[in-house]
Design a protein that fits this description.
Helix content of chain A: over 70%
Largest sheet of chain B: none
CATH architecture of the largest domain in chain B: Orthogonal Bundle
Number of domains of chain B: 2
Number of strands of chain A: 0
Helix content of chain B: 55-70%
Order of helices and strands of chain A: HHH
Radius of gyration of chain A: 38 Å
CATH topology of the largest domain in chain B: Arc Repressor Mutant, subunit A
Number of strands of chain B: 0
Oligomer: heterodimer
Largest interface: A-B, 31 and 50 residues
Strand content of chain B: under 5%
Order of helices and strands of chain B: HHHHHHHHH
Structural class of chain B: mainly alpha
Distance between the termini of chain A: 111 Å
Strand content of chain A: under 5%
Shape of chain A: elongated
Number of helices of chain A: 3
CATH class of the largest domain in chain B: Mainly Alpha
Largest sheet of chain A: none
Radius of gyration of chain B: 19 Å
């Protein structure tokens, strides 16, 4: 079906066709600005990569410090027996009363 | 794209940090991207900015290019997707009435009948404005689709390859778009 409206559309499109044609030659300075932008992008990527590595290393270090503290505190309170401080107090109280 | 380049070798050189390879790729891809951007350019969007955006995306994703299809096909798809993303952000006009046309557009609407030959460059610009107005009532994908078929003369298979849509979906869409365009043009003809 090719209605009058279809023909009108085709005619308008044909009339305007030249305005849709792309440029084959690059505008002056386009390559230079594109290369500058690419360099900037790469630089930012590298910086971001470095930042990420630093953040990962810092997190690992913080995690290791926290683990170290936890272990040393745990050891400090558990020296000598298998009971936690509250339980040890109760046992001591029991011993006192028994004696 | 006047002088063909060795794309594979250019890509290798670019990956090794050779800037002259980037220059060659930009010069090679520019006409392809420029054509797509000009056809599917959203209103109020600056052409050079959009071309630059597509090129930046291209270089950022070059590592994803497997070389199964020509680089220009891969870049065309990227350019079209970028334009569609921008077009989707624009509002669709519910309808166009005769009063919405400028005097020049009205004159072109009346004068253009079954011929389509360009009398002068100004007529082409007014006709383009009118075409843009007609297209502004369509969804982003529909706008691009009808131009790929009616303006660029792409086959359904080519469109399917570029857009990733199935043939039957494209046919359905085209049927709907044509009906909508007919309705809009009919409304203008009645001049309410």
């Amino acid at each position: 079906m090719n209605t009058n409206q279809d023909k009108k559309w085709e005619a308008l499109l044909a009339l305007s066709a030249s305005t849709f044609a792309g440029e084959s030659t690059l505008p002056y300075g386009f390559i230079t600005s594109m290369l500058a932008q690419l360099r900037l992008e790469q630089q930012q990527e590298r910086q971001l990569g470095r930042l990420c590595w630093r953040a990962i290393l810092a997190s690992l270090a913080a995690l290791m410090v926290a683990a170290g503290i936890t272990i040393s505190v745990h050891r400090h309170f558990n020296q000598g027996d298998d009971f936690d401080p509250g339980m040890r107090g109760l046992i001591q109280m029991e011993n006192v009363q028994a004696s | 794209m006047d002088q063909p380049i060795d794309v594979a070798r250019c890509l290798q050189r670019w990956q090794k940090g050779d800037e002259s390879a980037a220059e060659e790729l930009i010069a090679y891809l520019y006409p392809v991207i420029s054509r797509i951007v000009r056809i599917h350019l959203p209103r109020r969007e600056h052409e050079d900015d959009l071309i630059q955006e597509v090129l930046m995306k291209t270089f950022a994703r070059l590592h994803q290019y497997k070389g199964n299809a020509p680089l220009t096909h891969w870049v065309s798809r990227l350019a079209l997707t970028t334009c569609l993303d921008k077009l989707r952000a624009q509002k669709i006009r519910p309808e166009i009435r005769w009063a919405d046309l400028t005097p020049e557009e009205s004159a072109i609407f009346d004068a253009t009948w079954l011929e389509g030959s360009t009398r002068d460059a100004t007529d082409a610009i007014y006709a383009r404005d009118l075409v843009d107005k007609l297209l502004s009532t369509l969804e982003a994908e529909d706008r691009s689709l009808i131009l790929m078929v009616d303006l660029e003369g792409h086959s359904l298979e080519e469109i399917s390859e570029t857009t990733g849509w199935g043939i039957s979906k494209i046919k359905m869409r085209l049927f709907r778009i044509r009906n909508q365009l007919r309705k809009t043009i009919q409304t203008l003809e009645q001049r309410p």
